[in-house]
Design a protein that fits this description.
The structure holds three protein chains of three kinds.
Chain A (H helix, E strand, L loop, with lengths): L10 H10 L3 H14 L20 E6 L14 H7 L8 E3 L5 E3 L2 E6 L5 E6 L13 H12 L8 H4 L2 E8 L2 E6 L6 H5 L21 E7 L3 E6 L12 E6 L3 H9 L5 E2 L17 E16 L9 H9 L3 H9 L4 E2 L22 H10 L6 E7 L2 H16 L3 E7 L1 H10 L5 E6 L20 H11 L4 H18 L2 E14 L2 E2 L16 E2 L2
Parallel strand pairs in A: 1-10, 1-11, 14-15, 14-16
Antiparallel strand pairs in A: 2-3, 4-5, 5-7, 6-7, 8-9, 9-10, 11-17, 12-16, 12-17, 13-17, 18-19
Chain B lengths: L1 H28 L4 H6 L5 H11 L5 H13 L13 H36 L4 H15 L2 H15 L16 H36 L1 H8 L4 H30 L1 H7 L5 H11 L2 H29 L7 H4 L4
Helix pairs in contact in B: 1-13, 5-6, 5-8, 5-10, 5-13, 6-8, 7-8, 7-11, 8-10, 9-10, 10-13, 11-12, 12-13
Chain C lengths: L4 H4 L4 H5 L8 H10 L3 H22 L32 H36 L2 H16 L2 H12 L3 H29 L1 H8 L4 H37 L11 H8 L8 H28 L8
Helix pairs in contact in C: 4-5, 4-12, 5-6, 5-8, 5-10, 5-12, 6-8, 7-8, 8-10, 10-11, 10-12, 11-12
Chain lengths: 519, 323, 305
């Protein structure tokens, strides 16, 4: 598995998918909060924090989320973001471990009255890992690469709000925008700055607290502390990410002392071997991974809101959650996790009610309903689909299960939209806005929702924006374009002498500079 | 002899070419593509098209095949669609794991199975012979990965004497760590492999023991051991060489499962990952190499058998399939 | 190695040498051997019979439903309610093991059937028709044997989706190469026998020769191969399931049970030990059955193999 959350072995496909779901639009929301929040402190959710006098050690981290390649701005490939962003490469801004946008290579920025001109004031004492000083030319180059016609960045469309990049002096960058965009600082966090002229494929030369040392594909990636770092130096001398295909081998390595930290456990059962063992610390944090059974809203009978609501009411979501996660995880009733400002507890809007489900189906005039569920084969997914199938059978609906692989999912469901229902974990923070895109794979088309999301993006105040998004949230929660099942927990296991790692996983990078081993 | 050699070599090349073309075509019929798996959700169809054109996967299959073949002819295995690294580099990085694993397991198996097989045949009705046969019978029936899982449980998790998996970051520049990490995988493979071999060696030895010349030798006063050593080994070696070759080739293929159990970054893991990511250049290259190695080993078995037993030389046509 | 069918279905020199000229006719040999009971045959038949019986029972009844998650506590050891304990989802392990026996039997029978039909056809065609077809088929079979079985399975699974049928197709096709090889050699030998030549001269047609002389003569050797192939098919299915390429739940599978249980070896080792033992017992049974049959075919081998 590629990302943080679930899955033994085969579910890696499913998490690989999730890890890449990094939508430009979704980030916009986070960004819109960012302007207000800029300057938010770092490490606010650290485990333990750093201890003075901690020894300078190398930290070995186990992960199932290997980068597919070192190309940074392709799609939303989270393997490379998780290991490299903020650690090796930095943007003008960063998303901190608690989700707040903080200034990084830009010391500060200010916007004109109409919001169309944003001026970034850069840090002046920054050098690249090869010793070259960092200037505004590097910023202009890197941003222009991200919005170039051949850019494959998932944020390209949103960054295209940038009309012009000017560099009046070495320490200033002025961006001219086509329209007001409060989301801009958030997007810019994903544009990692490389040297003027360096291309995506060739550069491993960044400005971060670590320099890239080596990547042995299929095995490990090592970064070393960069001694001339402009900011607070890393608290360890280097980090190696070791990559595994499943958590079995990963946990074995942790048990036998080959690893210091496992980023994500994918089932509660393997925790038993660490519980009550003084050598290990288990942390439970929040994630943004929503397990979603989604309908193809374009086609009958799913275009009928009553059918969708009936199918949602037919599910015993808490049973599904506990089958996979035992006592962990949270049942959700829409796309928004409780950590977002526009969260409204909607878990009971379509609470488990088979009788109501039958009644709604009858009202919709649907009889002998039978359809398929395409899912990426994997242990947790298999558990979930079995339970969905049983719940549907109880209300007279026949579900045909169709296991496929990750690449097939991308083509059949995401690209060709040739499906009836599908199961997917969506990892991205604040991806509620995908329901405003009628061309997205689930094809939910509600003009009100689209208008509210657009308005929220250009809202003058945060309150106005939150109010709009809350309306979006409540509307989709009611209309059930998807059946949101539960939110994954973020469970990490570390050796007990390791501290300083983020507990929650609400960003795409895994910031390692605060991790220490107590000596 | 030379003509036969040439014929066989030609057949080998033709087989390989056919396999290459078939695999190339079949891979392009698979649903999903590398552009999709590497860009993921959030990209537009324009961006997908852009990447496909950069990778060349939007070209007609014939043109792609031609490009691949001309690349091969100049020794270029191509570039990975996903990591954008040269395929040859990716494969080369995995060889230090898979090659020592396969070879060590093979050598260990030969060292175990040849003496045990002969003893089992000579003392076939004795306790030792029966015990060896029974062990072999059991070893053949055991799933390789289960042996691995059990060994990890006992030696790594319970006893803590060997690592449960993985390969040291320093690779072979830390030989002690590398050897430790390969110990359990090698034992795992060797248990399965030597069980198969013991049965062959025993069977071949029994055949030899039955032969008239051995009876004659014994009637001339040779001890059984000496008679066997002088006359038997050469004859018994022919079928044994065949199975050794097959086992050597299979040990490369079997790597997928064993590498999975022990989380080793070898060729098997690369194959599994590459199929899942639709990294076709890597899959093509691996299939070609594995198939070539197996065919080549078969070819070498032929030659070795003929060297051992010159009588086999005329019989090429019938023996072609009767290895 | 269990992933490769050619090695599992161990060919011995005897299989390729066909009926020995001086050996009694198969029927006679079988009769004589049956009177002297072979321990391999008996042990093998008992083991295979037992697994088959469990498989048949599992088709109609298991202590708990195969998809009954939470029928007991998670990862519990053996108890009165759950004789073999439970897995990570609280499913009854004994029921899963029984379901696995059914899957193993289905895969063994179906893939051997595919392999036999395909292999027999290819082998006889190669031996009994023109030389160029022979050469072509021999090379195809060589290539098939050289081609990684696992990759074949991965390709089939990718196109068709992971299911029992996909596994059967992959294992059957790979196994057909072994059957074709054995069939070709033995058929060629039978066709060279004097009585066959005589039969041909007296006007027996091509099909008549195959039916009356070739098939009866090669069937004892073939039967042995089929038993060994069935054993390798079960090993191969377990490997595929272990790698996540097998049939998804609620279809139970020994290989998948193992994969799931290995993550929790320190908590509930039975989950990994028992499915492994089940595979060993079944494959051992089939191999012993094959060896026993071989002894019956050729009394000279009595007690030797």
């Amino acid at each position: 598995m590629r990302e943080k959350y679930h899955a033994q072995h085969a579910t890696e496909l499913d998490t690989a998918r999730r890890s890449r779901l990094f939508p430009a639009a979704a980030l916009a929301l986070a960004a819109s909060l960012a302007l207000a929040a800029c300057g938010g402190g770092s490490g606010s959710t650290d485990a333990g924090g750093s201890t003075p006098g901690a020894s300078e050690a190398e930290i070995v981290i186990g992960s199932t989320n290997e980068p597919t390649g070192l190309v940074r701005n392709v799609g939303g490939s989270s393997g490379v973001s998780q290991t490299m962003t903020r650690n090796v490469f930095e943007g003008l801004t960063s998303v901190d471990v608690d989700g707040a946008v903080i200034p990084t290579l830009a010391e500060s920025w200010d916007a004109s009255e109409d919001g169309l001109t944003v001026t970034f004031h850069l840090q002046t004492d920054v050098v690249f890992h090869d010793g070259t000083p960092f200037t505004s030319a590097d910023v202009a180059w890197s941003i222009s690469q991200a919005i170039a016609p051949e850019s494959k960045s998932a944020r390209k469309a949103d960054l295209s709000v940038i009309q012009d990049i000017a560099t009046p002096d070495d320490a200033t960058v002025v961006l001219t925008l086509a329209r007001r965009s409060q989301a801009l600082p958030f997007y810019l966090a994903s544009v990692t700055i490389v040297k003027d002229g360096d291309t995506e494929l060739s550069s491993d030369n960044g400005t971060g607290p670590y320099r890239f040392a080596e990547w042995t594909q299929g095995d490990h990636l090592t970064i070393e502390r960069f001694d001339d770092y402009w900011g607070e130096p890393a608290k360890n001398i280097g980090v190696t990410f070791r990559f595994f295909k499943d958590t079995t081998a990963l946990n074995n390595a942790l048990l036998t002392g080959d690893l210091d930290l496992v980023i994500a456990e994918d089932s509660p059962d393997q925790l038993v071997q660490f519980e009550g063992n003084p050598d290990f610390t288990i942390t439970e944090g929040t994630s943004t991974t929503k397990q979603i059974w989604t309908f193809n809203n374009r086609i009958a009978p799913f275009s009928d809101v009553r059918v969708r609501q009936a199918l949602y009411k037919a599910l015993d979501r808490d049973k599904i959650r506990s089958a996979v996660w035992d006592s962990y995880g949270t049942v959700i009733g829409s796309m928004v996790p409780p950590t977002d400002d526009w969260f409204v507890d909607q878990a009971d809007v379509h609470a488990y009610d088979p009788a109501a489900a039958k009644a709604l189906l009858a009202e919709a005039g649907v009889t002998d309903l039978a359809f398929s569920l395409d899912y990426v084969a994997g242990d947790n997914n298999e558990t979930i689909v079995q339970l969905i199938k049983a719940d549907l059978a109880a209300v007279g609906v026949t579900l045909n299960l169709n296991p496929i692989d990750d690449a097939t999912w991308y083509q059949k469901i995401y690209t060709d939209k040739d499906y009836e229902t599908t199961l997917m974990g969506h990892v991205n923070p604040r991806d509620l806005v995908w329901y405003a895109n009628p061309d997205f794979y689930w094809g939910y088309n509600n003009a009100d929702v689209q208008q509210w999301v657009a308005d929220a993006d250009q809202a003058a105040t945060t309150d106005e924006q939150v109010a709009l998004l809350r309306k979006v949230n409540e509307t989709i929660g009611l209309e059930a374009p998807s059946a949101w099942l539960y939110l994954d927990p973020q469970i990490r296991v570390a050796r007990s002498d390791i501290s300083g790692f983020p507990i929650d996983q609400v960003t795409e990078s895994f910031y390692v500079a605060d991790i220490v081993r107590e000596g | 002899m030379a003509r036969h050699l040439l014929q066989r070599a030609l057949a080998l090349l033709v087989s390989l070419a056919i396999a290459g073309v078939v695999v190339f075509a079949v891979l392009r019929l698979l649903p999903g593509d590398a552009a999709g798996t590497s860009l993921g959700v959030g990209t537009t169809s324009d961006q997908l098209a852009q990447l496909r054109s950069e990778l060349g996967t939007d070209q007609p299959v014939g043109a792609q095949l031609w490009q691949w073949v001309t690349g091969l002819a100049s020794g270029d295995l191509g570039t990975s669609f996903v990591s954008r690294m040269p395929v040859a580099d990716l494969i080369a990085a995995r060889l230090p794991v898979t090659l020592p694993l396969s070879l060590a397991a093979f050598v260990l198996s030969v060292l175990i199975s040849v003496p045990l097989g002969i003893i089992a045949a000579v003392r076939r009705r004795g306790v030792v012979g029966v015990a060896v046969s029974a062990m072999a019978q059991l070893g053949v029936a055991v799933p390789v990965f289960w042996v691995g899982v059990m060994l990890v449980w006992v030696f790594a998790l319970k006893a803590g004497v060997l690592p449960p998996g993985g390969f040291p970051r320093q690779g072979w520049s830390d030989p002690a760590a590398a050897i430790r990490s390969l110990t359990l995988p090698v034992v795992t493979v060797a248990i399965a492999m030597s069980s198969v071999m013991v049965r062959y060696v025993r069977s071949a030895t029994l055949d030899v023991l039955d032969q008239d010349y051995l009876r004659t030798a014994r009637s001339l006063g040779y001890s059984r051991t000496r008679a066997l050593a002088r006359h038997g080994l050469r004859n018994g070696a022919v079928p044994v060489v065949a199975i050794l070759g097959i086992e050597l080739a299979t040990s490369l293929l079997g790597a997928v499962v064993v590498e999975n159990v022990f989380a080793l970054p070898g060729l098997g893991a690369l194959l599994l990952d590459s199929v899942q990511a639709r990294d076709l250049p890597v899959v093509q290259a691996l299939v070609l190499i594995i198939t070539a190695v197996v065919l080549l080993v078969n070819f070498l078995i032929d030659l070795t058998q003929q060297a051992i037993d010159p009588r086999l030389r005329g019989a090429a046509a019938t023996r072609g399939a009767a290895r | 190695m269990s992933t490769d069918l050619t090695a599992g279905a161990a060919l011995t020199p005897d299989d390729l040498s066909g009926p020995r000229p001086d050996a009694p006719a198969p029927a006679l040999a079988a009769g004589r051997a049956a009177r002297r009971r072979s321990p391999s045959l008996i042990v093998g038949a008992v083991l295979v019979g037992l697994v088959a019986l469990v498989g048949v029972v599992a088709t109609f009844w298991t202590p708990y439903a195969l998809d009954a998650t939470g029928s007991g506590p998670r990862l519990a050891g053996p108890s009165a309610e759950h004789w073999a304990g439970t897995d990570r989802l609280g499913r009854d392990l004994l029921s899963q093991l029984m379901g696995g026996a059914q899957a193993a039997m289905v895969v063994a029978v179906a893939s051997v059937l595919v392999a036999t039909v395909l292999g027999l056809t290819l082998g006889i065609l190669a031996a009994a028709t023109t030389r160029w077809l022979d050469v072509a088929l021999v090379n195809v079979v060589d290539l098939l044997i050289a081609f990684p079985t696992l990759l074949l399975a991965m390709l089939i699974v990718t196109v068709r989706g992971a299911s029992l049928t996909s596994a059967i197709a992959a294992i059957g096709i790979a196994g057909s190469a072994v059957i074709a090889r054995v069939t070709r050699v033995n058929t060629a030998r039978v066709l060279r026998e004097d009585y066959v030549t005589a039969a041909k001269a007296s006007g027996t047609g091509w099909w008549g020769t195959i039916r009356r002389h070739v098939l009866p003569n090669i069937s004892p050797t073939l039967l042995v191969q089929v038993m060994l192939l069935a054993g390798s098919a079960i090993l191969a299915e377990a490997s595929l399931s272990y790698l996540g390429l097998g049939a998804p739940p609620p279809q139970a599978s020994w290989g998948r049970l193992l994969r799931e249980a290995q993550a929790t070896m320190l908590v509930q080792p039975w989950g990994a030990i028992l499915p492994g033992l089940a595979v060993v017992a079944t494959v051992l049974g089939l191999n012993l059955l094959g060896d026993g049959l071989r002894e019956r075919n050729d009394p000279n081998l009595r007690g030797d193999r």
